[in-house]
UniProtKB/TrEMBL annotation:
Molecular function in Gene Ontology: 4 iron, 4 sulfur cluster binding; formate dehydrogenase (NAD+) activity; molybdenum ion binding; molybdopterin cofactor binding
Name of one Pfam family that matches: Molydop_binding
CDD domains noted in UniProt: MopB_CT_ydeP, MopB_ydeP
Required co-factors: [4Fe-4S] cluster; Mo-bis(molybdopterin guanine dinucleotide)
InterPro entries according to UniProt: Asp_de-COase-like_dom_sf, MopB_CT_YdeP, MoPterin_dinucl-bd_dom, Mopterin_OxRdtase, Mopterin_OxRdtse_a_bac, Prok_molybdopt-oxidoreductase, YdeP_MopB
Keywords attached to this entry: 4Fe-4S, Iron, Iron-sulfur, Metal-binding, Molybdenum, Oxidoreductase
Domain Molybdopterin oxidoreductase positions: 121-502
Entry protein name: Oxidoreductase alpha (Molybdopterin) subunit
Record-stated family: Belongs to the prokaryotic molybdopterin-containing oxidoreductase family.
NCBIfam families cross-referenced by the UniProt entry: Fdhalpha-like
GO biological process: cellular respiration
Length: 789
């Protein structure tokens, strides 16, 4: 059966088909996809062994998402996309000096992102040679010296930016920030600025901590789980086992998403023998509400309004209150202003903004009110908006109304992205150092770092655009493809004096190089990391603040690789010279020493080395979970969102809100294939989803090619051309396309004012039929229309 299916799918990919996917998420389709990913990367045999060590007490932490594992002590949990993340790292392909000798940078620039990464693991440090337009091998010491020369030649340390992507370990990220601060700047643009910054800024104002308040075991005690703008079946698949069991024991799950994401509807657990044998599945969401893109605030305010109305009615009828008045009195501040705002917000205003009916919103509110314990989950569908921070705060408001924070089975659950993005933040990757961090570094190393705030992603880009920035160093990631407006950003990056990328695989950012450029290849999570004191483990913090150790067992992809901490230490030693306050080599000889230093800077890591050796690691306490509110009022704050619309300046009926999201077969800018199985897209990514009514309005037939034009008042033309029209039952007034292909449409100035998170999920656009549709495309169109029937 599986072989037949594979042949059918290969055919669909070849024919670039669009068709409705009728299977549940997970199940045999996921097992098949896992096998194929391993085979494609040539890791079929050793890969299986590698997978068995994933998320084991003695193994490595999955390099995929940040969803926790059941105490990191249990047996292997199946996850299709975790397997792909491992396969892409443990690939048999190698990107060697011969590869770079054979292909000039100009030639590689024309390659697809998928093909760049398929070249395999980087094996040697490489430096750009202008004369031949090629990267050529360089010795590690010469590379470090080149960086030192550039950095020490700057007029000011603030002319350099130091990017971090959230896969770096606590040890690497900590050393990196100490180095950069001793060098003299707080310029730390990081992937979190494009991701959960709205959480990091919004939740502290509400509940005094910028992280979630639940642990995995809370999912076993929740009576209702609400999921806003998050796609767990694709982006945190291990969460599906928690949702699967919650649903089976009768908890209500309610999702809000413009897309009917398949895993939010139905899921077959590969660990459930009965479901697998009978081709059965479990319904996940009791209700999946297709909210309009950017309509979440209207939904959240509507739900709160319904709760307040129910409370008024209960009060009038002398029935028990719906609001948790004891909690509100004892723990919160600002309820009166919130109640007034909700009473002044009419249903007539809420309903059209939300894209749902009043009955839908009231039904969701009823489920919320009837549940004793509620978990509120959210992802990028909430944070990457024009008023993302304030939207996140409405999640906290909703939770606080019924005391759903700080007791078992209840809480706020922002689902983090990269596997250690939360840990990076905890150990000091921030452009706004706190007094505790400054004092801590002085305590540990005897120097006082700069206090003035540095660059986040938007400020780093501004600095490049103005020609102020000269050097860009990246600890992982793919900045040039992940940022908004990348056509313009890439042009600015090409004017830099030096670009440095610490990376495992070749990507777009390495080709968008400065006058000098280095690619420094590092070990991955799956690989053995041997330093002077023997094999080392690193540590990471997951989405629920559990910290645990991770140690690879695979042989490194090349003998020339260094670990991330060793590379950072090499750069630091070369740049800061013998007068540095830090003994870089000494720290890297044993990562226990780095952890001891982390503990001095951050006392919450007390007994760090001891506790990571305990099975399952340890939990970094969240004060809000204990109902201790670290806010200026000393209480949890209800915060009012004025109005309902995140950006009322775009109410022209012809303008659509474009959201950009991930396919099932990508990890951020890394593509696993060009297909998106659950949304029924095969062999292509240049597509735009919209409902039939909106396509008809524009006189476009599914399968035809369209241009997408950003609506912006700055006079700059931002357009992507020739995208294929796909019919998908989205709410009116919105459309969707893939990240990073659609990023050129996101204007640099379109970001949330409070957190400066780019508004990747609410881009005002117009969509028009492409000027010239060639006959060959017409033929393809007819083929596609066929596939629809
Ligand atoms: N396999 C895999 N795993 C990953 C990643 C990956 O790329 N691949 N990326 C990692 C990272 S860094 C992150 S941050 C997370 C991202 O994980 P998610 O937060 O799930 O990210 P997205 O896929 O961008 O978008 C989430 C959902 O928001 C919906 N959405 C779009 N606009 C709106 C809106 O206005 N309102 C609502 N309610 N929903 C909306 C989309 O339809 C989509 O289902 O996953 C992490 N894990
Ligand atoms: N339009 C739009 N844009 C978005 C988003 C969106 O939803 N829509 N999402 C945003 C979000 S949430 C995020 S987090 C950013 C992601 O932005 P980034 O984190 O910068 O991007 P990634 O694609 O995750 O980076 C992939 C690269 O990391 C390198 N890498 C992989 N493993 C390792 C390792 O172990 N060590 C090192 N040093 N390098 C490694 C490889 O070279 C790989 O090519 O993109 C943002 N951009
Ligand atoms: Mo992210």
């Amino acid at each position: 059966m599986l072989l037949n299916e594979t042949a059918k799918e290969t055919d669909m990919v070849k024919r670039k088909e669009i068709r409705i996917y009728s299977e549940p998420a997970g199940g045999w389709g996921a097992l098949k996809a896992t096998g194929e990913a391993l085979a494609l990367q040539g890791v079929a045999v050793s890969g299986a062994k590698t997978l068995l060590r994933m998320n084991q007490p003695e193994g490595f932490d999955c390099p995929g998402c940040a969803w926790p594992d059941p105490k990191h002590t249990s047996s292997f949990e199946f996850c299709e996309n975790g397997a792909k993340a491992v396969a892409w790292e443990a690939t048999a392909n190698r990107c060697t000096p011969d590869f770079f000798a054979a292909h000039s940078v100009s030639e590689l620039t024309a390659w697809d992102d998928y093909d760049l990464e398929m070249a395999g693991r980087l094996t040697h440090p490489m430096a750009y040679d202008d004369a031949t337009d090629r990267y050529r091998p360089i010795e590690w010491e010469d590379a470090f010296a080149m960086i030192a020369r550039h950095l020490n030649g700057l007029d000011s340390p603030d002319q350099a930016d130091f990017y971090t992507s959230g896969r770096a370990s606590n040890e690497a990220a900590f050393l990196y920030q100490v180095f950069v601060r001793e060098f003299g700047t707080n310029n730390f643009p990081d992937c979190s600025n494009m991701c959960h910054e709205a959480t990091s800024v919004g939740l502290p104002e509400s509940i005094g901590v910028g992280k979630g308040t639940v642990l995995l075991e809370d999912f076993e005690h929740a009576d209702a789980i609400f999921i806003f703008g998050q796609n767990p079946g694709t982006n945190s698949p291990r969460m599906m086992s928690d949702l699967h069991s919650a649903s089976r024991r009768g908890a209500k799950i309610v999702s809000f998403n413009p897309f009917r994401e398949r895993a939010l509807e139905r899921f077959a657990s590969p660990q459930n023998p009965v479901e697998m044998a009978t081709l059965g599945s479990t319904q996940i969401s009791s209700f999946l509400y297709q909210v309009r893109v950017g309509g979440d605030v209207a939904v959240l305010k509507g739900m709160m309004k319904a709760i307040v109305e129910a409370d008024d009615a209960a009060l009038a009828a002398n029935l028990p209150r719906v609001l948790d008045i004891d909690f509100i009195d004892a723990h919160t501040h600002g309820i009166d202003a919130l109640l007034e705002d909700l009473r002044n917000t009419s249903w007539d205003a809420i309903v059209p903004q939300s894209g749902l009916t009043r009955a839908d919103i009231e039904n969701a509110a009823n489920i919320y009110m009837q549940a004793k314990n509620v978990i509120l989950v959210y992802g990028m569908g909430l944070t990457q908006h024009h008023r993302g921070t304030e939207t996140v705060q409405q999640i906290a408001n909703l939770a606080l109304l019924r005391g759903n924070i700080g007791r078992p089975g209840a809480g706020v659950c922002p689902v983090r992205g990269h596997s250690n993005v939360q840990g990076n933040r905890t150990v000091g990757i921030t452009e706004k150092p706190s007094p505790q961090l400054i004092d801590g570094i002085e305590r540990a190393f005897g120097f006082r770092p700069p206090v003035s705030h540095g660059h986040d992603v938007i400020a780093a880009i501004d600095s490049m655009m103005h020609g102020d920035a000269k050097v860009f160093v990246a600890l992982g990631g793919n900045f040039a493809a992940a940022v908004p407006d990348w056509v313009r950003v890439q042009a600015a990056m090409r004017k830099l004096d030096l670009t440095v990328h610490i990376a495992t695989k070749l990507n777009r950012s390495h080709l968008v190089h400065g006058k000098d450029a280095l690619i420094l290849p590092c070990l991955g999570r799956t690989e053995i990391d041997i330093q002077a004191d023997g094999p080392q483990s690193i540590t990471v913090e997951d989405s629920m603040s559990m910290v645990h150790a991770s140690g690879g067992r695979n042989q490194p992809a090349s003998p020339h690789l260094k670990s991330e901490p060793a590379i950072v230490a090499g750069i630091a030693r070369a740049t800061l010279g013998p007068d540095s306050h830090v003994r870089w080599e000494h720290l890297v000889e044993s990562y226990d020493r780095i952890r001891d230093a982390i503990e001095i800077v951050y006392p919450i890591f007390e007994r760090y080395n001891e506790r990571i050796r305990e099975p399952g690691g340890f939990h970094l306490t969240s004060t809000a979970r204990e109902r201790v509110w670290m806010t200026p009022t000393g209480r949890a704050n209800f915060l009012v969102f004025e109005g309902l619309d995140e950006d009322p300046s775009h109410d022209d009926p012809d303008t659509l809100r474009l959201t950009t999201m991930r396919s099932h077969d990508q990890y951020n800018t890394t593509l696993y294939s060009h297909s998106d199985r659950y949304r029924g897209v095969f062999g292509q990514r240049d597509v735009v989803f919209m409902n039939a009514r909106e396509w008809q309005k524009r006189n476009v037939h599914p399968g035809e090619r369209v241009d997408i034009i950003a609506v912006s008042k700055d006079g700059i033309e931002r357009v992507i051309r020739g995208f294929k029209a796909v019919e998908y039952e989205l709410p009116d007034g919105c459309c969707g396309a893939y990240y990073p292909e659609a990023n050129p449409l996101v204007p640099l100035h379109a970001f949330d004012a409070k957190s400066r998170t780019p508004s990747y999920k609410s881009v005002p656009v117009k969509v028009v039929r492409s000027a010239a549709v060639k006959d060959t495309q017409r033929a393809a169109v007819e083929g596609d229309q066929h596939a629809y029937q």
